[in-house]
Amino acid sequence: MSDRLHAFEAIDNFRDYGDYASAAGRRVRPGRLLRSAHHARASDADLERLKGLNLGVVVDLRRPGERRDQPSRRHDGFDALVIEGGIDDGAEAPHITFLKTADLTPDSGRRFMTQTYRSLPFDASHIDVFGRYFQALGDQDRPVLIHCAAGKDRTGFLAALTHHLLGVHRDDLVEDYLLTNTAVDLAGRAPSIARQLHKMTGRVASDDAVVAFLGVEPAYLEAAFAEVEARHGSLDAYLDQALGVDAALRARIEARLSA
């Protein structure tokens, strides 16, 4: 799986989530579906690499406040369509509030992440951006990149939903989701991240708590899918009813992204 990972100087968790076997013996095209963390700290060399990818669409899943605090860097000649959420309630991002106020334990981290995933598919801003993303997949021949802040939760759910639509086997879908833990070397970075959290909050978090909150686990994604199925009956119904991905759009996406 390491060949999926793209090493950048200052963009974390950058990888290709295409090139999986899909339904009817086909395969998702490589190099067309990309995901990452934010680009606010991208180096000049990173920008040159991004330029070489010839991106057609960049989907920024962050809240408006997150984008203001950490604006994306762009290379010269950047001409990709940028899809962003426009709903700004002025509130602090929930994960920042959690880190500042909650007990930083593995159990509290897992509870917070599970609840986050249960509500994530139904956030009005997410629904708007997800829907525009799938419309772009049906219209775009150049690569599409999705990212949020860390490239793991909002990005991870949307990538998994894309895999489902394309008929990627659930085992491959989950494996790709979990690749975040390898891409960011969470276990190795946990001590330094814990020190950063202590500096930010004044409270001590164990390495296990850092991994529980900043990593991904199958149960998180399963919580999101279960809530979607409870409310809509199936992932396919959610795609259609909530995101506007009807049969015609699905067919266009599959034709453009399957080989």
UniProtKB/TrEMBL annotation:
PROSITE patterns: TYR_PHOSPHATASE_1 (PS00383), TYR_PHOSPHATASE_2 (PS50056). Residues 128-161 form the Tyrosine specific protein phosphatases domain. Belongs to the protein-tyrosine phosphatase family. This is Protein-tyrosine-phosphatase.
